[in-house]
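Hi everyone,

Forwarding the result from last night's run.
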Amino acid sequence: MRASRLEAFSDGVLAIIITIMVLELKVPEGHDLSDLVHTTGVGLLTYLLSFVYVGIYWNNHHHMFHLVRRVSGAVLWANLALLFCLSLFPFTTAWMDESRFERIPVVIYGLNLLGAATAYFVLQTVIVRQQGPKSPLRQAVGTDIKGKVSPAFCLAGILSALTLDRSGNVGVGIALACFVGAAIMWIVPDRRIDRVVRQYETPD
């Protein structure tokens, strides 16, 4: 199957995920800035974080499939696993928001992030295996340091929320900082795949 059909389906699912998340935001009852902050402030922050994560996955997914012409059944299922993890973002984001960052909802949100990172890594690995020993995707990602470090950030955040200061907010604060840090790391443009795409598009 051509990769274009998989990309179109994935784009549609991600667009729906973002739409569902923004619909979870509560409209302020009043008309002042204080009403916005009190009613929607936390929700806007959690929405922004999850929106950034969905945007990161869409961006990287889009770039990755520049190096994929056809997809196998294994790639289709790996891609569905990634979309499943991302489709949980509206639920875990809303729970974390409504609980005002209670420990368990934050841990579940972290597990959601970790699951998405793992699913993306599996999808990337399946594509590399499909392409064979001279895989252009393997050439592009190299050692993939960022791909290995970001799940570690998520895991560190989960463990912090579970083990540090259970009666307070220190562990949760560290967890949120880890989640934000992982997102910031991926916001920085990653031009590895762009370079390989230009190389394959340039005639010898």
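The CA atoms of residues 44 and 70 lie 39 Å apart.

Cheers,
N.
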